[in-house]
Amino acid sequence: MVKIVTIAGSDASGGAGLEADLKTFEEYGLYGMTAVTLIATMDPDNNWAHGVFPIDEKNLKAQLETVFKGVGATAAKSGMLGTFYAVELTREYISTYKIKNYVLDPVMVCKGSDEALNPELNQSIAGKLLPLAKVVTPNLFEAGQLSGIKEVSSIEQMKEAAKIIAEKGSANVFIKGGSKLPDATEAVDLLYDGNNFELIKKPLIKTNRTHGAGCTVSAAIASGLARGLSVYDAVVLAKKFISQSLEGNFALNEWVGPGNPAEWRKNNLFS
Length: 271
Fold this sequence. Notes:
This protein has a single domain (about 5-255), classed as UDP-N-acetylmuramoyl-L-alanine:D-glutamate ligase (3-Layer(aba) Sandwich). About 40% of the residues lie in helices and about 20% in strands. The chain has eight helices and nine strands. The chain has helices at about 15-25, 55-70, 85-95, 120-130, 140-145, 155-165, 215-225, 230-245; strands at about 5-10, 30-45, 50-55, 75-80, 100-105, 135, 175, 185-190, 195-205. A hairpin with a 4-residue loop joins strand 8 (about 185-190) and strand 9.
């Protein structure tokens, strides 16, 4: 059994965060583990407003000890970290246990929130975790934050941002969310390996029920790496995975709707 861990926040509604990661790991036939960095909640009496409740440092360290020292992992993915100590502990365990298949999803906001997390925290993530990542998977907003480009709104700006981010340490940069480019007619994402650009395209799925999509595609890339795929093949397969998931989107409530990772089973790709 191939073991993989997500170091991420818990989404109490189940659509994103480590819940989305575990669903993805399961569909890839992997044994998923977690280290919970924070709990994100949503208030149904206040238009689904988000709350973020960090897990304390001692608790997080104990979880990481359980996973990395007690069990071991072939691959790891980190999502929303939320605190400086979560960033430092992630760096410590990924480097100490020499996790080569590490995917950094530099989550900076909860979907539905407007403000980025602490800018100094974002800098800490870039400085400490980018050099450890086999793949970093920012969306357009996060790519802008990591690269210093004010607004990433074209394929050329995606390429420019990817170059800057790669120079900060990550071996491969996958910028997701190209479906949100102005006048987008297809879902196009960008992979940069430090030398070459690859546009990864799929037909545009017109839906606003995308809760957890970013977490899911990053978890799928990590899962592909855990299964021994190359970065390119892991990204292409992840793109297929998220496209099928979004085709099965549904309304969770009046505010949000996620995709459905279980759509993958219909194709039995790992049977």
